[in-house]
Design a protein that fits this description.
single chain; about 260 residues; alpha+beta; 11 helices; 10 strands; about 20% strand; globular
């Protein structure tokens, strides 16, 4: 977890970043590099106030109270919403893999921001990750590079790392545009991350911080100089193609009903 505790590596240009990614690829040939872009390096305190780490928790574990009973109550409420949304998803869109794989249902709900889940959004597209890092027009952004075992299929399980990686672009039809445009991948713990009773029981002692998979983290500076010179972020209407994404319209209805 030392990388999560350490300061970010500063990168001042797109060319410099590409060079560093090339080094990471070359010196980690057995790993599958995936990316996550953010506008801030969100952190959490692990008990001791001096133990501050980058926070790559799944959304269902974020922002929990430090008081154990309160944290369990919050997670229990989130789990209830997730289960309700999952059942609605099976009812309204349930076909094929959606009935067979619970983790796929969670992946869709997480990727479309319908409810909080035990999964973390990542991507194998550097372009997409950087576009999220640039999304709020700040002078700096953050890029996380995680090293995972090589994928073995659209739902890839690694007993070595105790993780699952779900490739939504391989599992969603073309008219579900968002995962294809974003090269959407979802990362989860295996098998404990699939057990909602265990997830509720453990809160707030959360182990699912994917910062343990970090190869490095970058702070991207002078971002106004990147745009138009060497890098152009993907427009938001491409990252979120809601107007012609058939899943989006159905899922928004699920979100309203699950949270009612």
């Amino acid at each position: 977890m030392s990388i999560a505790r350490n300061p970010c590596h500063e990168v001042k240009s797109y060319e410099e970043l590409l060079e560093k990614i090339a080094y990471l690829n070359f010196y980690n040939p057995s790993l599958n590099l995936v990316f996550r872009g953010q506008d801030a390096d969100y952190q959490w305190i692990n008990g001791d106030r001096e133990d501050v780490r980058s926070n790559l928790h799944p959304s269902i574990f974020r922002g929990l109270p430090t008081n154990r009973p309160e944290a369990k109550s919050v997670v229990s409420r989130r789990v209830g919403i997730l289960e309700k949304a999952e059942n609605l998803l099976k009812e309204k869109i349930g076909t094929g893999y959606l009935y067979k794989h619970r983790v796929l249902r969670w992946a869709i709900l997480q990727h479309y921001e319908i409810c909080q889940t035990p999964l973390l959004d990542v991507t194998n597209s550097l372009q997409t990750a950087l576009s999220f890092a640039f999304s709020n027009d700040h002078e700096k952004g953050y890029l996380y590079v995680l090293g995972l075992p090589q994928s073995t299929g659209p739902i890839s399980t690694s007993l070595e790392s105790m993780t699952q990686l779900i490739d939504l672009s391989k599992l969603c039809p073309p008219d579900a545009a968002r995962p294809h445009y974003q090269h959407g991948l979802l990362l989860g713990d295996y098998p404990s991350g699939l057990d909602l009773e265990e997830i509720t029981r453990r809160a707030p002692h959360v182990s699912s911080n994917f910062a343990c998979r970090l190869l490095t983290k970058f702070q991207l500076t002078n971002m106004h100089n990147w745009v138009g010179n060497s890098f152009t972020p993907t427009p938001k209407d491409i990252l979120f193609p809601n107007s012609h994404d058939t899943y989006y319209r159905k899922l928004i209805a699920i979100k309203d009903e699950a949270n009612a």
